[in-house]
Specification:
Layout (H helix, E strand, L loop, with lengths): L2 H31 L3 H27 L15 H6 L7 H22 L3 H28 L6 H12 L13 H27 L3 H47 L1 H14 L4 H11 L3 H13 L9 H17 L10 H23 L7 H27 L2
C-alpha cells in the first residue's frame, strides 16, 4: 500500500471512528432519557456496542501509526435532533433503524474499497453487529411503539431521503389499442394536412395529390412503427435495468431494501407494524422482494410492458390506414369535387377516431369525437389556405 492509499485509508477509518462515537453518544443519551427499563437496557447495550466499534477503529489507527481523533460531535449525539424532527421522540428509533441500514451499506462499500485485510476484518465484524442492531431496533419499534398518525409524515420524509438519488419511475407502457388509435390519429391528421395543402396549391390535381399523399403515408407509417418499437423497447430496457439494480440492492443491503418498501406502504396509510409484517412475508422469497421493489419504483410489472414488435406493427398499420383515408377520393375524381369529398371523409374519420379514444379515456365519445373534428377542420383550412398561397408564388 503506497502512502496515498494509506492516507485515504486512515481518513476513512477516522470518519468511521467519528460515526461510531456519534452513535455511542446518541444511544447513551436516549438510554438516559428512557423510562421503560427494558428499552433503557437495550439502548445502553447498543451504546456500548457502538463504543466497542470505535475502539476497534482506534486499534487500526494505532497499527497504522495514525493519531486517535478527537470527537467533534455534540455530547448528545443525534438524540436531540432526532427527537425534534417530525413525529417527536416516539419515532426516533425508527430513524435510527434507517440510519443503521445506511451504515451497513456504507461499510459494505468499504469492504470493496479498502485494500487492508485487517481493516476489512473489522468491517465484517462491525457489519454483523450493525445488522443485529437493525433487528434489535425493529423489535423495539414493533413491540413497544404504538402506531401513530404522525408516522405517515415521518415515513414520507424518510422515503424521500432514501430515494432522492434514484431515478423517477416511468409511465406505463401503452397497450396495442392505444398505439393503434394514436397511429390512426397521427396518420389521418398528417396526411389530411398534406392533401389539403397540395390540393390548395394544385387546385385538386389528383396526380400530385396522390404522389404526395402516398409518399407521406409510407413515411408516416414507417416513422410511427419505428418510433413505437423504440419506445416500447426502451421502456422494457429501463425496467430490466431497474430490476437488476433492485436485485443488487437486495443482495447488497437487504435491510435497506426492506425499509424502503415498508416506508412506501406506510406513506399509503398502512401502519408501520402491518407494513413491516407484510414486507417480512414478501422477503421470504428474495425474487418476490425484488419484483415488489421494481414494481413500486416503475409503477408497472414485466407483464404490463408493451411488446416492441406488437407496438411497431399496430402503430405502423394503423398510421397507414389513417393516412390512406384522405387520399381515397383522388383515385376516382379530381378538382374541387375531390377536395370536398376528401374533406367530408376526413372529418368523419376524425370524429370516428376521436370517439374511439373514449375506449381508453374517461371522456364521452361525442365530446372526444367533436374535439377531434374541430381540430381536423382547423388543420384542413389552414393547410389549404397555405397551399393556395404557396401555389401562387
Amino acid at each position: 500500500m503506497n502512502s496515498r492509499d494509506q492516507q485515504r485509508l486512515i481518513e476513512a477509518i477516522s470518519a468511521n471512528w467519528q460515526a461510531e462515537m456519534r452513535g455511542f453518544h446518541t444511544y447513551n443519551t436516549l438510554s438516559q432519557n428512557e423510562r421503560e427499563p427494558h428499552r433503557r437496557r437495550t439502548l445502553r447495550h447498543l451504546a456500548l456496542a457502538e463504543k466497542h466499534h470505535a475502539e476497534l477503529w482506534e486499534s487500526r489507527l494505532t497499527a497504522l501509526g495514525a493519531p486517535i481523533p478527537t470527537y467533534d460531535g455534540p455530547d448528545a449525539g443525534d438524540a436531540d435532533s432526532l427527537a425534534n424532527r417530525i413525529g417527536g421522540p416516539g419515532l426516533a428509533l425508527r430513524r435510527l433503524e434507517i440510519d443503521e441500514s445506511r451504515d451497513i451499506a456504507r461499510y459494505a462499500k468499504q469492504i470493496e474499497e479498502f485494500g487492508d485485510p485487517d481493516s476489512v476484518a473489522v468491517l465484517k465484524e462491525v457489519i454483523a453487529d450493525e445488522a443485529d442492531h437493525h433487528l434489535t431496533l425493529g423489535s423495539l419499534i414493533r413491540n413497544h411503539l404504538p402506531a401513530r398518525a404522525e408516522e405517515n409524515h415521518a415515513a414520507q420524509q424518510a422515503l424521500d431521503e432514501l430515494v432522492a438519488t434514484r431515478e423517477k419511475g416511468q409511465p406505463k407502457a401503452a397497450s396495442w389499442i392505444g398505439d393503434a388509435i394514436y397511429g390512426v390519429n397521427d396518420g389521418l391528421g398528417a396526411i389530411f394536412g398534406i392533401v389539403s395543402g397540395v390540393s390548395g396549391a394544385t387546385l385538386g390535381n389528383s396526380h400530385f395529390v396522390l404522389i404526395a399523399g402516398l409518399a407521406g403515408m409510407i413515411a408516416s407509417a414507417l416513422s410511427m412503427g419505428s418510433g413505437a418499437y423504440l419506445a416500447a423497447k426502451s421502456e422494457r430496457e429501463i425496467y430490466e435495468a431497474e430490476f437488476d439494480r433492485e436485485r443488487e440492492a437486495v443482495e447488497y443491503n437487504e435491510a435497506e431494501a426492506r425499509e424502503l418498501l415498508s416506508l412506501t406502504y406506510q406513506v399509503r396509510g398502512v401502519s408501520s407494524e402491518d407494513a413491516d409484517r407484510f414486507v417480512d412475508r414478501i422477503a421470504q422469497d428474495k425474487q418476490q422482494l425484488v419484483h415488489a421493489l421494481a414494481r413500486e419504483r416503475l409503477h408497472t410489472t414485466e407483464e404490463g410492458l408493451a411488446d416492441p414488435w406488437v407496438s411497431a406493427t399496430s402503430g405502423a398499420i394503423s398510421t397507414a390506414v389513417g393516412a390512406f383515408i384522405p387520399i381515397v377520393p383522388f383515385f376516382f375524381m379530381a378538382g374541387l369535387p375531390a377536395i370536398i369529398v376528401a374533406a367530408i371523409v376526413s372529418l368523419a374519420a376524425h370524429f370516428a377516431v376521436g370517439a374511439a379514444k373514449s375506449l381508453i379515456t374517461i371522456r364521452s365519445w361525442w365530446s372526444s369525437g367533436l374535439e377531434m373534428t374541430i381540430v381536423g377542420a382547423i388543420e384542413g383550412v389552414v393547410t389549404y389556405a397555405l397551399g393556395i398561397a404557396l401555389g401562387k408564388l
